[in-house]
Amino acid sequence: MTHEQVKINVLYFAAAWTATGLSNELVPIPRNLRLSSLADLLVARHPKAAALRKILDGSKWSVDAEMVDDPEVVELKGGEEVAVICPVSGG
């Protein structure tokens, strides 16, 4: 039995882009991954990005261009576009 690996496209902006050095990446995910668990997966993929955990913990998420209020209730099934929306400081 073949298990097809599902992937999502993660978009990085601002500090997340700087930390990873990427503007986007295709990320293989386990089936039915909760959005609230995605940060752990991304931090594990980028062990040299020391600030990434802090950045992700302070960021919001959007899935398929819709902002997410509660990442715990969103299940990623594969094929989604997930954006890391970092806080913006103004002056």
From TrEMBL:
Q: Which UniProt keywords apply?
A: Nucleotide-binding
Source organism, top-level taxon: Eukaryota
Q: Which GO terms describe its cellular component?
A: molybdopterin adenylyltransferase complex
> What is a biological process (GO) this protein takes part in?
Mo-molybdopterin cofactor biosynthetic process
Cross-referenced InterPro entries: Beta-grasp_dom_sf, MOCS2A, Mopterin_synth/thiamin_S_b, ThiS/MoaD-like
* Organism of provenance: Mycena maculata
| One Pfam family of this chain | ThiS
Instruction: State the name under which the record lists this protein.
Output: Molybdopterin synthase sulfur carrier subunit
Q: Which GO terms describe its molecular function?
A: nucleotide binding
